[in-house]
Every structure is written in C-alpha cells, then in structure tokens.
Amino acid sequence: MASPLDIIKKEPSLYLPKKIDLAINLIQAFITNNNPLGLKIAIILSGAKDFISYDDNNGVVFNIDELCSLCRIDRRYLSSNIKRTTQTFYTYVSDSGGTGGTHPIHSYEYLNANKEIRIEISSKAKSLFTELRKKDSEGGYQYTKAISRNLMIYDLKDVTKHTLKMQLLLEMINNFSHSKRKNFSLEELNGYFGTKYIRYGELERKILKPVRNDTLKYSSISFEYQPTKDISGSNKITSVTIDITDNTNLLTL
Asked: 139 and 200, same structural domain?
C-alpha cells in the first residue's frame, strides 16, 4: 500500500518539512493496520491534547470519559477496539540511517473501577510523539495538526479506512502543494488504497463516491473528481483528476 508521500512527491516544488515524514508514516501505519482508534490516540499523544503526563514506564492515564470525548467514540466502541490499538507496527529510520520498528502502543489497563485507563507506549514512540508535539522554530505541531485535525473529527463507526486514507491525501495536497488539482492514474490510486480495481466504475462505486460523501459530512475539505480517458482516443478511463474543495460552510454536523 503506497504512502501519500509516494504519489505527492512527484511534484518537484512540493515543500515537505521533515516532521511531515514522521507524522505521515505514523498515521499511515495505523490506517494500513485498520486501527483508527490507535491512530486517534497517537494523534492525541502527538499534540492534540495540550498536556500529557508520562509515568516512569512511559504510561499515560486518561479519564475514560475524556478519552472517549477526544476520540468521538463511546465506551462500547472503546471496549471493543482497545485491544487492536496495541497491534500496529511502526517502521522508522533513525537519525543515523538505521531501520527499526516498534509497536507504538504497548499495552493498556483499566484503573479506578473502569473510570480511567492507562496506556503504555514504547520508548521510541514516546520520543516520536514528543518530537511531533514540539512547538519549535520549525513550526512543531502545526505540521502534525495540519494533516490530522480532520482525522480526529470522523465518527469511527461510520467510515472506513479508505475515507481516512483519502483524508490524509487531501490534507497533503491542501497544505503542502502549490496546486489544489492533482491527476492520478488508476494504478496510483489502487496502489494507494491497497485495491486492485481494473475498471474505473468499481473504483468510483467502492471508493470515490462513498469517500466523498464521508468528507462532505465530516471534513472541512472535500473534493470533486473527474475521470480522464486515454489520450489515444479510446474510451478507456486511465486516470482521475481530483480537485480540493472548501467544505467549511457545508458541514452537516
């Protein structure tokens, strides 16, 4: 499954701060693993919540009602999906160039008669989250926030990982590209979404239409799309042009 960095970096003038690589790869790991709750917790630890206090073993205690409110979920969803948060594996490249890997969320434990939950993360994940939440000369969390703010709004019971992946792609185009219009081949879109739809009609029916409906319902940005036929003159559709649209005033929430 391709990363948004792979299909967006083909624009030579694209400006991508170093922290975007960190944030994108982290978000991508959770989405690929179909772990949206883990993703939201990772975003919270990366700066969406102003103050995070770790204990000596890299654990963070949340009031469960507060955590559910931050993630826009209920207690039943938390109970059904908390185990999966520990199953995502994140691959990283160290400053020295070496490749490593970690499970960002190691474990969880309910406390205080199920009024609180302690979430323990790996030391590497703590270092990553701390780096992403810094408000330094490079802008710090503004870059993480730019690509994650709409991801936090989605109702996880109502959308699929295709929607989350499209949102990530839209945020990349909207925040870091000089043009709000991009053309992608069907091969590129299949690679990005991890699908193998040969016909454009399948891609539209199973991804583009439902995902666009989700963005119109939940996100401050959405998109229009237009199929493009082969330049040879055949009727075969070989690519899709995507235009970013402002949805701020049209949100149905």
From this structure: no
